[in-house]
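Here is the promised in-class demo. Please do not try to memorize the tokens; focus on the logic of going from shape to residues.
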């Protein structure tokens, strides 16, 4: 794959798919059903969003002004390219903006059609390595065999650099053996899997956030709890042992949660290791070798000691710059320059690590 060799690669960029554009990539049966919804008067019908799944819907109405009067919409490759340039970013990895809750769907056929439509849409409208626009293949966890076919279909297309695993409300957690076809296909293709979190309220662990009444509480808990639960699932169900060449990236959860999780994994492994005969080292060793985190949300600058603990837990070589653009609290490349580490390590976070993980050359 080609990469211009710029200074910054952003591993967490979101777009806004228009209803009309994405609709045209669905198979005919689904097109007709979705057109029927629109003809009934729902021109603004959203594919998955439901009040309560996002913190700024009727579950939690906005009570204070947002940072911008109108949310910025990334509606075309030209808009995204201009955004990245203005932020000093040479290339980025694209994720959905409207389909972050794809894991919630229980209609298997529709989940597969949705993923196929989205991947076709990315391939034809967005992916362009010469512009620094890369993307992740959307893998529907509801149908692992079909997800593996999607990975094989797009893995050799220049510009697809990862596999996107929706992890907002997924059931079961991503360590379950039923997902092995996805991991096998990703490993064979040499692509990392990216667990992309989002704030959701759902009835499965750990997203039962109807217990907390504020948007602040939901923001604090959803992505970080989801990342912790899925990482522990991946380790204790043996995914990292069964697929020794697989790389796993956690987006949009920060990294402050990791030291505590690794400490508890190693602690209880000493007493319960018979449950995990497939692990030959400490659980934390598997994580430090194969798991990567992105920098958003950047919540560590208030404490040098906390920064050092988190960087020690994950290792500078396993930290990728991710901004979560264009969301209101997006991280900036300048934030990395404030870290109490050397300049060479900062370049690793901003570009070199991503170049290696995503095979950018």
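The designed amino acids, position by position:
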């Amino acid at each position: 794959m080609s990469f211009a060799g710029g200074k910054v690669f952003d591993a967490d960029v979101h777009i806004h798919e228009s209803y009309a554009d994405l609709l045209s990539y669905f198979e005919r049966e689904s097109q007709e059903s979705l057109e029927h919804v629109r003809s009934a008067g729902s021109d603004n019908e959203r594919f998955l969003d439901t009040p309560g799944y996002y913190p700024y819907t009727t579950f939690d109405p906005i009570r204070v002004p947002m940072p911008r009067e109108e949310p910025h919409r990334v509606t075309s490759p030209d808009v995204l390219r201009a955004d990245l340039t203005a932020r000093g970013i040479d290339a980025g990895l694209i994720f959905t903006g409207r389909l972050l809750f794809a894991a919630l769907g229980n209609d298997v056929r529709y989940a597969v059609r949705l993923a196929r439509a989205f991947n076709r849409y990315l391939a034809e409208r967005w992916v362009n390595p010469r512009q620094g626009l890369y993307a992740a293949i959307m893998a529907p966890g509801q149908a692992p065999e079909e997800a593996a076919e999607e990975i094989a279909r797009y893995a050799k297309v220049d510009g697809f650099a990862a596999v996107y695993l929706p992890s907002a409300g997924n059931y079961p957690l991503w360590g379950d053996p039923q997902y092995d076809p996805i991991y096998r296909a990703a490993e064979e293709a040499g692509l990392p899997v990216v667990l992309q979190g989002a704030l959701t309220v759902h009835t499965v662990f750990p997203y039962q956030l109807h217990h907390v009444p504020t948007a602040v509480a939901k923001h604090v808990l959803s992505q970080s709890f989801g990342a912790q639960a899925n990482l522990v699932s991946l380790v204790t169900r043996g995914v990292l042992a069964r697929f020794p060449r697989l790389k796993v990236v956690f987006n949009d959860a920060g990294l402050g949660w990791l030291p505590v999780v690794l400490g508890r994994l190693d602690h209880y492994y000493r007493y319960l290791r018979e449950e995990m005969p497939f692990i030959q080292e400490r659980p934390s060793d598997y994580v430090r070798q194969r798991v990567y985190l992105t920098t958003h949300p950047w919540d560590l600058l208030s404490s040098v000691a906390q920064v050092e603990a988190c960087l020690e837990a994950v290792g500078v070589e396993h930290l990728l710059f991710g901004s979560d653009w264009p969301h209101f609290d997006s991280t900036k490349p300048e934030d990395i320059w404030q870290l109490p580490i050397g300049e060479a390590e900062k370049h690793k976070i901003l570009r070199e690590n991503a170049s290696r993980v995503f095979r950018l050359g």
